[in-house]
Amino acid sequence: MDRVELAGMLGAQTTACEPARAALLDGGDFVVWDGRVPSQQLVGIYAARLRRARKRGTETLALPSTVDILTRLEAAQVRIGCIFSPDRTWAFMLFLADDASAVVACTGVRQVDGDS
Fold first, then answer.
1. What is the pTM of this model?
2. What does the pLDDT read at residue 18?
3. Does the CA dihedral 62-42-100-91 come out positive or negative?
């Protein structure tokens, strides 16, 4: 998958899509990993990340709505990707349809020293 193709998939799924697209088009690093994961397996992981972010005061974009979208997907398989802003201050996690034809959700997390 190339940069322009991925940028075209980032619409209005969540409020993190626009800044993720900007980071991608500004030259940020990105990857879409091979393999698929059941969305329900990710719900618990990202719900826990939401709780930790709130507890620590970490700035996020669309993390609650991403958890909601993953919850509604039920047993659907998703592919996972990531876009880093060019200055690496933000990481955007992408959740794509199992055939990688569409982004179904996107969340962003501000990176702090020690996170990677």
1. 0.94
2. 97
3. positive
